[in-house]
Amino acid sequence: MSVKILMICLGNICRSPLAEGILASKLPKNKFKVDSAGTGAWHVGHKPDYRSIAVAKKNKISISDQKGRQFSKSDFDSFDYIYVMDNSNYDDVIQLAESQEQKQKVQLILNELFPNEKVDVPDPYFGLPNGFEIVYNMLDEVCDVIAKKLIDKHQ
């Protein structure tokens, strides 16, 4: 049985598709399944932002086949780990949780690098021209830590 990890951001077109692609590239596919979703429904069915696709491709990761989807309550039952990109996403997901067990699955992703500091992965959508590169590098670093933890725990 695969260990399932879900990455969540606001629209599921910038940060969470990158996080999905990066983490999936670091984990054995036969043991782990990584997916992503957004807390909002604006981009359901759409490909990731072209800038996320480009920065992933530059780093030899393909995310162009991903399709945006919205987080739903059933994801609490489907996934073992849920990583959110920022505090707003965290609050939105936690509000949907119906038990302490569901809440415990949800983690702010950068807490893996900066425990209890509640650091956000910035949303690059309206940001600086190099924002997608900055976000990629942040996610790549934190996904190294997450992948090691998951492999150590589940292998």
From TrEMBL:
InterPro entries referenced in this protein's UniProt entry, alphabetically: LMW_PTPase, Ptyr_pPase, Ptyr_pPase_sf, Tyr_phospatase_low_mol_wt
Residue ranges occupied by any Phosphotyrosine protein phosphatase I domain in the UniProt entry: 3-149
One Pfam family this sequence matches: LMWPc
Coiled coil: none
EC code: 3.1.3.48
Keyword Ubl conjugation: no
Primary enzyme class: hydrolase
Top-rank taxon, per record: Bacteria
Entry keywords, A to Z: Hydrolase, Protein phosphatase
Family membership: Belongs to the low molecular weight phosphotyrosine protein phosphatase family.
PANTHER family per the UniProt record, alphabetical: LOW MOLECULAR WEIGHT PHOSPHOTYROSINE PROTEIN PHOSPHATASE, LOW MOLECULAR WEIGHT PROTEIN TYROSINE PHOSPHATASE
Full protein name: protein-tyrosine-phosphatase
Organism encoding this protein: Flavobacterium ranwuense
Phylogenetic placement of the source organism: Bacteria, Pseudomonadati, Bacteroidota, Flavobacteriia, Flavobacteriales
